[in-house]
Amino acid sequence: MSFKNIIMIGDRINPQGFKSVAKMVEEEDIAGLQALAVKQADAGSRYIDVTVGPRAYEDIAFLQKVVVALQDAVDAPLCIDYPVSNIVRECLKVYDPAKSKGRPPLINSFAETRLEMMELFQIMPLQAIVMASEYLDENDRPKGSKTTREVVDVAGRMVERLTTEGGLQREDIFVDVVINSIACDTEGLTKAALEAVAQLGSDPRTRGVHITGGLTNIGNMLPKIEFDGMSLRHCMENAFLTRAVPLGFDTILGTPWNKFAPLPEGHPVLVAFDETIQLTGLNAMRRLRALWAKKP
After folding, report:
1. Which of the four pLDDT bands, split at 50, 70 and 90, describes residue 71?
2. CA separation for the pair 81, 13 (Å, rounded)
3. Which of 20, 21, 34, 292 has the fewest CB atoms nearer than 10 Å to its CB?
């Protein structure tokens, strides 16, 4: 049984995450990128995430070319994945909403630490991903969110700004609760992310927004072993979703052809996940490593 009503943002067009895509970007293989977009759309992606990595900072024309080409290949709206207003602005100059059936592009990402992104709403209607990992303190100094309360509070402030100044409806806003690698989470950040998911759904400031995160992060640096025919990394993604989806997590930024489904209670990876996130420091690492210590 898979998760129901999950929104998928296909994240494969990312040269910093996938060597095959890095090769496509280096060789300007537009046809290859188009084929990858089609594959993701066919696998159920509602949005196609697009970045050409650092190349965009020096060659914005290439990124524009990719945007146009992907829109020629699929009618799913694109998720422009750059937290830099000038780069996104250049993408919007060539973005054609008519090619995505009138649906606006999704911009990743808005943050309290870069409010100049709000100027993008003057160009065309947009949807927005909010990075709840960053905020400004009382002295307007940038800080990284470390606690559930910090994540929820900055999300609340940004949702208010996006609805009042950007004219967005709450269903146009996706809050990224920041998913970290469980393999190096010694500060309880995964537990804080789950708590934030639950609170975002009940807090009147954020009720009705979508909740998302980079799901592939949770399994980074885990060993390449399998449990019941599924890689440990993918098992860990499903463990996170098993606990997060009932709390309100409804949007995956990930690989659309992976099988996302709840792990059964008692599954060794789910048990290890539940126990590890309750721990911090070396205790968390010891419990996680016990998961594969006796595996042949």
Report:
1. very high
2. 10
3. 20
**Cis omega before residue 133 (within 30°)?**
no
Specify whether the CB–CB gap between 222 and 201 falls below 8 A.
Answer: no
Displacement of CA 75 from its chain's centroid (Å) = 21
Quickly name the fold that domain 7-293 has.
TIM Barrel (3.20.20)
Query: What is this structure's pTM?
Result: 0.95
Compute the distance between CA of residue 14 and CA of residue 117 in angstroms, rounded to an integer. Answer: 22
| End-to-end Cα distance, the chain | 28
Beta-bridged to residue 230, according to DSSP, are: 227
Model confidence at 167: pLDDT above 90: yes
Torsion angle (degrees, nearest 10) of CA 234, 192, 142, 158: 90
The partner residues of 136 in beta bridges, in order of sequence, read 142
Domain boundaries, the chain: 7-293
Q: Which amino acid is at 262?
A: P
Q: Give the Cα separation of 197 and 211 in Å (integer).
A: 7
